[in-house]
Amino acid sequence: MRWQPARLVSRRVETPTAQTLVLEVPGWPAHLPGQHVDLRLTAPDGYQAARSYSLAGPADGDRIEVTVQRVPDGEVSPFLVDNYQVGDPVEVRGPLGGWFIWRPQQTDPVLLVAGGSGVVPLMAMVRARRATGSRVPFRLIYSVRTPGDVFYTEELRHRVRDDAGLDVAYVYTREAPPDWRGEPHRIGLADVNTHGWPPELEPLVYVCGPTGFVETVADLLVGLGHPARRVRTERFGPTG
């Protein structure tokens, strides 16, 4: 898998600490929802740093999207969020990953469970569903600290309104909006049981987020009766 030259075409603010970067990669070979790429930056003195980022949308010619959240004391993400300018170069390697993917021709119900920025590859699946005209029912459970930490806020609101077969439920861990029922809490059995698919429907399940979050949710799902082989997980650490 070779490194390919790319440039920033545009950017969108998602939250105070996260932005979506639209990159043009000449000759991009296309990708599947759920895959990721490596981005590599090179300093004037030749020093290089690379990080992996999930692709945020389906294939679109030579353009790809990644959503980057600034990591405190990070080496790459603060530059990409705060200093990387339209027209600036970067190197891209990918697409990478062949397990944590959703193919539009699949017909099983889909349950997506996201923790924080783990929503990015799951949003690629949501967008691919719409782009391909799939009628597969999707449910997304999205756990975030506060309403201000939600990625793709307006797009998700419109998709729930306009896309038949897509449901989104939020779990707030620190601060909830006034119209949200209950108190802020970490995701638990009641959330997964209420907003997910019952195991007898045999949904495909995709869980993405920090390691502790992913392990907790996967255990809850298996405990509810979902076969472990149908629960696909992807986790990230502090520099993910």
Question: Can you summarize this structure?
Answer:
With 240 residues, the chain is an alpha/beta fold.
List the helices and strands and how they pair.
Blueprint: E1 4-15, E2 18-24, E3 36-42, E4 48-54, E5 63-69, H1 77-82, E6 89-96, E7 110-115, H2 119-132, E8 138-144, H3 153-162, E9 166-172, H4 189-195, E10 204-210, H5 211-223, E11 231-236
Parallel strand pairs: 7-8, 7-10, 8-9, 10-11
Antiparallel strand pairs: 1-2, 1-6, 2-5, 3-4, 3-6
Organism: Micromonospora zingiberis
Domain FAD-binding FR-type: 1-102
Cofactor: FAD
What can you tell me about this protein's structure?
This is Oxidoreductase. It comes from Micromonospora zingiberis. The strands form 2 sheets. The chain has a 6-stranded antiparallel sheet with strand order 4-3-6-1-2-5. Strands 9-8-7-10-11 form a 5-stranded parallel sheet, sandwiched between helices. The model has no long low-confidence stretch (mean pLDDT about 95). It has helices at about 75-80, 120-130, 155-160, 190-195, 210-225; strands at about 5-15, 20-25, 35-40, 50-55, 65-70, 90-95, 110-115, 140-145, 165-170, 205-210, 230-235. It starts with a strand and ends with a strand. The protein contains 5 helices and 11 strands; from the N terminus they run βββββαββαβαβαβαβ. The protein is of the alpha/beta class.
